[in-house]
Design goal:
heterodimer; A: 0% strand; B: alpha/beta; Helicase, Ruva Protein, domain 3; 6-stranded mixed sheet; globular
């Protein structure tokens, strides 16, 4: 009996893995039509935005970044990369369960595969597109391979937060089909309230406490600390980023499972 | 040998008309104090069913009797609200072929995608791709995106993938016949092969003569309840009597 359930678990894991593989490759193929260069399109957005912010705010905010425009550019870029990844992951995850509703009515599938595959496709894109740039930036600034390796921690935190929120929004979208409009607003609020293009120091202390609730702030801070400061990775920032990731993932998973039994009636 | 067993399986489903599907409306109705719990409807009512291996079972009944829902519960697409479903062996639900196709990607990628959705591994599907293409007569379309196929061609492809290996349990929602005349014949032969082989077959059909001739067992469902279960001929007779009355 016990061995039976263990082998069943193994079977389920390998099925999940197979499904994840085909769904991610399907996703990337439809997005880029077979051209690997297509992945680099995803870099276009943060690069253009960074240029724009630098042109508008660079001169004003440079004093907060040690009077260096370059530092401002790098800070804006890391912030944008995080917020872009978050918004792409979660908005794609949001509609994933509903879009595959017909399929779920024909074939028995683990429902969580759909939001997870959306996140996984974005992780792949991040790994080949943005990550090499971040790694080079980090290596030049810190001259230490440890910092480059430490990038994995805020990235993990980011992926966990995205997966958790992806679970929640994809489940809620089953019940509320106008959620995407509200969610756009939520992403905008998170984006403005993360210190992406402005230094955190300009915000008044009362408001700052509120901004601390933003799950992305410690992740952005950790990225900047590791890749821009040149100092040894700060473990407090890292553990804050990872801890929030775990909290969001657990919350998301619980909600998803809690609501899952009602999905099929509404798809 | 017993392959499928349902013990007093009941299923309540939310009726979709009752549901607003709308965050704005839900919030506003909460504020106005008009919010109601969504209504639920009993779709399957204490179904007991035992299927032995290589039995051919026909399920009959009027529209909305819960026939397709019963198939979905057996294929574990839907979880019963109460009761237990036990299934031994792999199930191939042939409910609307090609539902898993992505029209943007190539035929060969779709073969792998659909096969994995049905529960096979990528490796297996790569090995079987050529025999599937041959059966569907689509060898020349290997790298063409599925949106470039005609609807008959993609139905052929769906059928070829789903029936490439013989499943232990075959679930059919209406007997399939797809494609043009020559392919219809070919697909019919393949179904017949399964039919006369060891496969356990559960089929939902409105073709009562077909159920009489091809099934050993008949189940008559009415409003989510099993009205009769036994010889296929008897099930059809009782069903017809109830209509004429």
């Amino acid at each position: 009996m016990v061995s039976n359930s263990v082998s069943l678990g193994k079977e389920q894991i390998s099925r999940y893995w197979e499904l994840l593989n085909v769904l991610v490759s399907r996703n990337l193929k439809t997005r880029y039509r077979g051209s690997l260069l297509g992945v680099y399109w995803s870099l276009l957005n943060p690069l253009i935005m960074t240029g724009l912010y630098t042109a508008i705010f660079g001169a004003t905010f440079a004093s907060y970044y040690g009077n260096s425009i370059i530092n401002y550019v790098l800070a804006a870029f890391t912030g944008l990369v995080v917020i872009n990844f978050f918004s792409a992951c979660t908005t794609q995850a949001l509609s994933s369960v509903v879009w595959n509703g017909t399929l779920l009515n024909k074939i028995q599938l683990p429902v969580s595969i759909f939001p997870v595959s959306m996140i996984a496709a974005n992780v792949f894109q991040f790994a080949v597109g943005v990550f090499p740039l971040l790694a080079i930036m980090t290596l030049i600034n810190s001259k230490s391979i440890i910092n480059v390796l430490a990038l994995i921690f805020p990235i993990t935190g980011l992926i966990l937060v995205c997966t958790g929120i992806g679970f929640i929004v994809s489940a809620l979208y089953v019940f509320f089909r106008d959620l995407n409009y509200f969610y756009e607003l939520v992403v905008f609020v998170l984006w403005i309230s993360s210190p992406v293009f402005y230094p955190a120091a300009i915000v008044s202390p009362q408001v700052k406490a509120l901004l601390g609730l933003n799950p992305l702030s410690p992740i952005i801070e950790s990225f900047r600390q590791i890749s821009l400061s040149g100092a040894f990775p700060d473990f407090i920032l890292i553990s804050d980023a990872i801890l929030r990731g775990i909290i969001f993932l657990v919350m998301g998973w619980i909600c998803f499972h809690w609501w899952r039994s009602q999905f099929m009636d509404l798809l | 040998m017993e392959v499928i067993r349902l013990d007093s399986v009941s299923l309540w489903r939310r009726t979709q008309e009752e549901f607003s599907y709308d965050l704005k409306k839900t919030i506003l109705s909460f504020l106005e104090g008009k919010y109601r719990q969504p209504a639920r409807k009993l779709v399957l009512d204490k179904i007991d069913l035992v299927v032995n291996s290589s039995e051919k079972i026909g399920i009959i009944g009027g529209n909305g009797a819960g026939k397709s829902t019963l198939l979905k519960v057996i294929s574990s697409i839907l979880q019963p609200t109460t009761g237990v479903v036990r299934v031994r062996g792999n199930i191939a639900p042939l409910i609307e072929l090609g539902a898993g196709f992505d029209s943007e990607i190539s035929v060969i990628d779709n073969i792998i995608l659909y096969g994995v959705l049905l529960g096979f591994s990528r490796q297996e599907m790569r090995e079987r791709a050529s025999s599937i293409l041959e059966f569907a007569e689509l060898q020349d379309y290997r790298l063409v995106p599925v949106k470039g196929l005609s609807s008959g061609m993609s139905a052929r492809l769906g059928f070829a993938i789903a029936t490439d290996v013989q499943p232990d349990i075959l679930i059919l929602d209406e007997v399939l016949s797809v494609g043009d005349e020559s392919f219809k014949k070919k697909s019919q032969q393949r179904i017949n092969k399964f039919w006369h082989g060891d496969a356990t077959v559960i089929v939902v059909s409105h073709d009562l003569n077909f159920v009489r001739e091809s099934c050993d067992q008949g189940i008559w469902l009415d409003k989510g309840k099993i009205k009769f279960s036994g010889k296929a001929n008897d099930a059809v007779d009782y069903y017809l009597q109830s209509i004429q009355r």
